[in-house]
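Risk register update: the risk of archive-format incompatibility is retired. Evidence:
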Amino acid sequence: MSAIKTPLKTAIRRCYPALVMTFVLSFFINLSMLVSPLYSMQIYDRVLTSRNPTTLTMLTLIVLAFLILYGVLEYARAGILVRSGLTFEATLRHPLFDSMMRAEHDPQARQGQRVIRDAETIRECISSGVATTLFDVPWTPVFLLLCFGIHPVLGVIGLSGALVLLTLAILAEVLNRAQLEKGASLGHQASNFAAAALRNGEVVRGLGMGDVVLERWSGQQSAAVIANATASERSAALTALSKFARISVQTAALCAGAWLAIDREISPGVMMAVSIMMGRALAPVEQIVVRWKHILAARSSYRRLETLFMMAPRPAERMQLPAPMGCLEVDSIVVAPPSSLRASVRRVTFRLEAGESLAIVGASASGKSSLCRALAGVWPLKAGVIRVDGAALDQWDPNTLGKHVGYLPQDVELFAGTVAENIARLETIDDGKVLDAAKAAGIHQMVLKLPNGYDTLIGDGGVALSGGTRQRVGLARALYGDPRVVLLDEPNSNLDDEGERALAQAIAAMKAARRTVVMVTHRPQSLAHVDKLLIMSMGSMIAFGERNDVIARMRGNRVAAVDSHDKQAGSPRLGPRAAAVQP
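Archived output:
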């Protein structure tokens, strides 16, 4: 897995130049930090003994210049890391969203909005103090070596303190990793449940489920909070221990330095300088313990994103095919819902020439909507192939093909924005195309009656549309851009008589324009508008052909079933195939 180049690794590689520059700046920043112990040494060993104010003034001015340089370098390093995080986010933005959308087909890879938060977690680690701390840690051995150079006893004290702090960091890894992952998983489940409750708010209120939903969400949220609180308490304890250890080590170093100064092995100035260097050496290690929770979160986010990109890789660049004419060929396809291993469509085969129209009918749960989703490329195929103008769906770029396909799902969802933006599929609004699509769907006059016409805001904070109105706006969206293939899944399920007439006129206009139309329907009156008929039963195709021929065959099957039953039982009853359609 690690050898495969994923968009996440590409985004991190884009940050390498900035991170290398940050490493170089960290060298000069830590080098400038030596000014403080050297200043202390000179104050105690030279200024106090010579009582020369000129020496004090010059030393102070030199130190001030270095401290200004230190501040400038710190600012530059912080700015580079912030821009590095922005580069990471900008590089990952498109492939991340693309993979997230494709992963919705795969329940194992599906993460929803969590992956966006994961990317944000990694970006914050790059831009924040976590990266700064990691770049300062390599200089800890340098300061410890300087302490050893001054006196071995002082070096051993500093090394012991660093090992203690490192042990605390390992304890943080062992104690908190599983707890943090558990808290993140439980929090994700609670957020998903809350989002589902908000989407189904009408049902929750209408059925009096508010207390039950609240209780279930509260239980999930409580479990997540407890898991995170446990991890936070452990982190707080380890942080307190790390601070205690660092201060204790500095105190021990000061005590040892004073003892050595009494024995005249080092000077008082060296004693103070060692204490400052010891603090600087241990500070990054202490910060590692303090920030270990964020490091663990970033590591978990990295693993989840890598898994997402491995399970939902970006498709290879495809050759651009010419605009389709609308010939649709389905060859022995098998379709299963993304969250199920059981096929809902089995070995369906048919062909539509450009400009032909087809109605798919059958009892509930017979596989009609699954077949329509597969034709739209929404659900992947388990077997078989779907071709548009002779090219399989995987040979088309989905976005390119989608410009020539109109798809109206069974459950219509609109985006927050204006009516015109929704009809235009969120593209730059072409007034002429929007009006043509609205008129083709028969909603032009209806839209004009809205508060601001085509500029009426819908969705969050906007006008709430009825189910029938949403469906008709969805139909206009499907017809936007004059698509060659139009797929309609129960387009009249929420329509009134006016909407039914508008739909019939739209289908007639599409037939006149030689558009290929596939419509899933339960209503027999819709069959009058199509050329061919496909009947589904329990996921299988039991009849396909010219509309009148199929209807005649099914009527014949019904008559035969009734006659057979009359002879055996004396009462009429429809056979299963005859019951599939009632024209």
